[in-house]
C-alpha cells in the first residue's frame, strides 16, 4: 500500500499482487475477524492498494470507500456498485469525506507507510480518523509493528552504507514507520479512542520464487525509495548484496526463504457518549 509521504509512484499492481506479495490479502484471517463486518456497515478502507481486499469486503457491507495515494494501484481496483475509490494520501484525508458517517475504518498493511511522517502528523491522522467515525464505530487495522522485516531493513541500510551513503541518510531513506504497542496506544487514546484490542504477532512469511520475485523483487518494490539514494548504476549491486545476506539468514533447511514479519493489530472504538 502506497506511502502518503512519497511523491513518486513506485507501485505496479501486477508486480505487487502476483510477483512479489500475493500473500498480503491472503494472510488477513485475524484482522478480518476483528473487523466483524456487518451488512449495514459503511466502511472506509485506508491504504486500499489494489483493492482486492476492499472488493471482498464490499460483498459483506452496505458501502465501502477505498483510499490510496498510488494512481497505479487505484487504476486497477475492481469495481462494484457499492464501492468508491479515491486517489489521495491517507495522511491528509480528503475534506469531502463525511464526518461521523462511517461505522468502520479499516486498514491492512498500510499504516506503516502512511505514518512515515512527523509525530505531529501521526497525532492529527488519528484525530481525523476519530472524527470520521460514528459514535460506537471502530477503527480496525493491521500493520507492521516495531521490528517488522528488520532482517531485510537492516540489510538494505547496510548495502547503502557500503556504497558510501552516510548511516543517518540511509536510515532516513526508509519509507516505513513501525510503531510499538505503546506508541499506538498513546496515539489512539490521545485521539479519544477506547482501545479494545492491541496485539502483535511474529508471522514468518515465505517470499515468492521465480523471476521478479524473492528478496530482489521485494527490495525493488517495497524499498524503492531507499535504493533511490544511490546512483542508478549502483542500485542492482545493492539489491544483490541484500539477496546474498538474506540467503544466509532467511533460507530454511527444509526449503523457502523467509522474512520475519511482525504484525500489529488494533481495534479502537469511538465512545457512544
TrEMBL record:
Residues covered by the Methyltransferase type domain: 44-140
Originating organism: Sphaerosporella brunnea
Origin organism lineage: Eukaryota, Fungi, Dikarya, Ascomycota, Pezizomycotina
BP GO terms, sorted: methylation
Name of this chain's protein: S-adenosyl-L-methionine-dependent methyltransferase
Segments crossing the lipid bilayer: none
Gene3D superfamilies tied to this protein: Vaccinia Virus protein VP39
Gene Ontology MF terms in the entry: S-adenosylmethionine-dependent methyltransferase activity
Keywords on record: Methyltransferase, Transferase
Amino acid at each position: 500500500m502506497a506511502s502518503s509521504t512519497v511523491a513518486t509512484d513506485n507501485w505496479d499492481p501486477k508486480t505487487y499482487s502476483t510477483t512479489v506479495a500475493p500473500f498480503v490479502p491472503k494472510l488477513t484471517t485475524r484482522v478480518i475477524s476483528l473487523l466483524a463486518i456487518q451488512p449495514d456497515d459503511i466502511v472506509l478502507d485506508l491504504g486500499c492498494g489494489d483493492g482486492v481486499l476492499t472488493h471482498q469486503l464490499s460483498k459483506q457491507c452496505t458501502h465501502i470507500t477505498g483510499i490510496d495515494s498510488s494512481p497505479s494501484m487505484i487504476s486497477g481496483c475492481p469495481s462494484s456498485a457499492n464501492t468508491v475509490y479515491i486517489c489521495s494520501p491517507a495522511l491528509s484525508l480528503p475534506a469531502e469525506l463525511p464526518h461521523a458517517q462511517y461505522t468502520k475504518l479499516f486498514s491492512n498493511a498500510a499504516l506503516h507507510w502512511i505514518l512515515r511522517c512527523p509525530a505531529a502528523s501521526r497525532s492529527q491522522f488519528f484525530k481525523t480518523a476519530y472524527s470520521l467515525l460514528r459514535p460506537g464505530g471502530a477503527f480496525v487495522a493491521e500493520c507492521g509493528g516495531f521490528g517488522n522485516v528488520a532482517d531485510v531493513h537492516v540489510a538494505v541500510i547496510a548495502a547503502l552504507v557500503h556504497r558510501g551513503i552516510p548511516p543517518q541518510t540511509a536510515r532516513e531513506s526508509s519509507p516505513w514507520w513501525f510503531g510499538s504497542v505503546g506508541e499506538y496506544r498513546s496515539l489512539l487514546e490521545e485521539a479519544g479512542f477506547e482501545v479494545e484490542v492491541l496485539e502483535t504477532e511474529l508471522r514468518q512469511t515465505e517470499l515468492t520464487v521465480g523471476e521478479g520475485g524473492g528478496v530482489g523483487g521485494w527490495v525493488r518494490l517495497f524499498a524503492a525509495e531507499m535504493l533511490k539514494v544511490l546512483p542508478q548504476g549502483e542500485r542492482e549491486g545493492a539489491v544483490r548484496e541484500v539477496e546474498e545476506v538474506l540467503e544466509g539468514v532467511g533460507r530454511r533447511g527444509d526449503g523457502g526463504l523467509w522474512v520475519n514479519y511482525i504484525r500489529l493489530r488494533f481495534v479502537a472504538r469511538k465512545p457512544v457518549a
